[in-house]
Design a protein that fits this description.
The protein is α/β, with parallel strands linked by helices and about 325 residues long. It contains 7 helices and 17 strands. Helix 3 packs across helix 4 and helix 5 packs across helix 6. The chain starts with a strand and ends with a helix.
Length: about 325
């Protein structure tokens, strides 16, 4: 077996066969885990780990605690808050935690727990996976605008009797110095940005299909990585997010492109994005998209509250 080693972690490509036989994810595991069978449909450098359950903890592998004693927790991730929760629970030997994200974007080793990458294949896929992995608790720390998976997780956990909590921070509220135009969806910007305007979407490309080609406007779309899809609008381009972007950097970007409108989702994670503060300083109009309805159920807003919720179920 040829390993891919990153910062002392052996990265083994786990062939999950959850809902799609071509679904893959990277699983950081200790070096003392045995090898699996070679995967016939993958290059020789990939390995299928079949004899180690996906959610088994490092402490279980080393025999320090009995497997049945570890509480199996799954974290539906997609935010920075999810990474912080994962790192916190990774240090607790009483918890066998796993996490999942819809698509690559955050390095697996940043979580500190086994990570599943990809969609669930619908309600049945999530239900079957939670049941097969014997998950005993779910923390939904997805983005508030990923409402589909939140509603599905709420229904599936209720059906299986699995405790679930949503990590949901309060939405951003404009101060007296802000002047925001609130929208129910990004598509509504078409009624506000006149022809000839330059519009900056700090939202990635999801949910923009209803705008068509948005002819007559210049459009820039902020993305986390280099998109594989073709730019959907008549004029403009994708702008790859810069790590550590500050207000001064955001001001420079907006000024260089002569932006008239900036469109932002009200995710409510941490402080208000630097683009919004930069827009205020430059006198650029801000369109803030309201959150979609969230599922009912218990909610938390901090890592400390997450740990209290988890340890109440140990």
């Amino acid at each position: 077996m040829r390993d891919q080693k990153t910062q002392g972690i052996t990265r083994i490509l786990l062939y999950t066969m959850v809902d799609n036989p071509k679904h893959d994810c990277f699983l950081p595991v200790p070096k003392d885990v045995g090898t699996g069978d070679e995967c016939a449909c993958r290059p020789p450098s990939t390995v299928v780990v079949r004899h180690v359950p996906f959610g088994i903890s490092r402490e279980e592998r080393k025999g320090r605690i009995a497997p049945q004693m570890a509480t199996r927790l799954h974290l539906l991730a997609g935010t920075e808050d999810a990474v912080h929760v994962a790192r916190a629970v990774a240090r607790d030997t009483r918890i066998a935690a796993t996490a999942s994200i819809a698509r690559p974007g955050i390095l697996p080793q940043q979580f500190g727990v086994p990570l599943r990458i990809g969609g669930w294949g619908g309600r049945e896929g999530l239900r079957d996976w939670l049941r097969r992995e014997r998950v005993q608790g779910v923390i939904d720390a997805t983005d508030p605008f990923a409402e589909t998976i939140s509603h599905v997780a709420h229904e599936v956990c209720a059906e299986l009797g699995i405790p679930r909590v949503q990590f949901l921070r309060s939405p951003w509220i404009p101060g007296p110095e802000h002047s925001w135009t609130f929208l129910n969806s990004a598509v509504e910007i078409g009624a506000h940005a006149s022809e000839g305007a330059t519009v900056w979407f700090a939202t990635e490309a999801r949910g923009l299909g209803g705008l068509g080609t948005f002819e007559g406007r210049r459009v820039f779309v902020r993305t986390a990585g280099h998109p594989e899809s073709r730019f959907p609008f008549a004029e403009g381009e994708y702008v790859v997010r810069t790590r550590g972007l500050n207000i001064a950097g955001a001001e420079a970007e907006l000024m260089a492109r002569r932006v008239d409108w900036i469109v932002v989702r009200n995710s409510g994670q941490g402080t208000i994005p630097p683009e919004v503060e930069a827009a205020r300083r430059l006198g650029i109009a801000v369109a803030m998209i309201r959150r979609p309805p969230q599922p009912e159920g218990p909610r938390i807003q901090t890592v400390s509250e997450a740990l209290v919720w988890i340890r109440g179920r140990l």
